[in-house]
Amino acid sequence: IHFHDDSSPTPPDCEGCADVTGVVTAPFNTAGKAAADWIIQDSAGTANTLIVGGSDILPSPGTIDTMTKEFDTNCADCKYTVINIPVADWNTKTQSEVQAALQANPDIKYVYVLYDAMVAGAVPAVETLGLTDVKIGSYNGSPFALDFIAQGDTVAFNVGEDTPGIGYAAIDQAFRILTGNAPVPTRTPIRIWDDTNVAEAGTPAAAGVGYGDATGTGYEALWQK
Questions:
Q1: 139: how many CB neighbours lie within 10 A of its CB?
Q2: Model's pTM, two decimal places?
C-alpha cells in the first residue's frame, strides 16, 4: 500500500512483489510533475529550484527524474539542483543540508522536498538565512504542512493526498483478496494546495478535508454500505 508509483508493473512484476497479490499504488510521479509545473508557472519560467529527495526510498528516484524532465522539457530558463538525504537522517540533517545548498547557490528561489517529513527541517534552513524570497513546496498534504501555507510562512504550496481515500482503496483491495476476488488497478487522488485554496482544507487543516466526497461515497456505494 502506497509504496509503488502508479506506473509500476502489477504483482508479481513490481519491485519486491514476488509474494504480493495486490497493491494500491500512489501518484508519486504525477505529484512530481504537478510540483514542477506549479514552480514553472509561479516563477514565470525562470525558477532555480533545489530538489530534496531520499534516494533510499523506492519512489524517490522516479519522482526526481519526472521533475527534472518536466523542467528540461517545459522550462528552458529553469535551473535545478538535486540533493538526497537518507530517510534515517531527515530529522537531523535536513536543515543543515538544505542550508548548505542555499549558501552554495544563492540564486535558488524554490526548495521542493519530496515528503512533508522534511518540511520541519527545510523551513528553519530558509528562515535562519533570512531568505524571504525563497519558497518551499512538498508532497503529502499533511495538516501541519498545509497550516504553514495558511499562516503565510515560508511554505508556499503542497501536492496533497486524500489520506482517507487511500484508506478506502487499501481496504477495498484487501477485501477483494480476502473474498477470493481478483485485485483491481487503483488510483488515489491528489490536489495542489497554495494560498488560493488552502482554506478549503480546514482551519486548522485536517486530513482528507478539501478533496470532495466522491471517493468515500463511491466505495461505500460499491460495498452497499
A1: 27
A2: 0.94
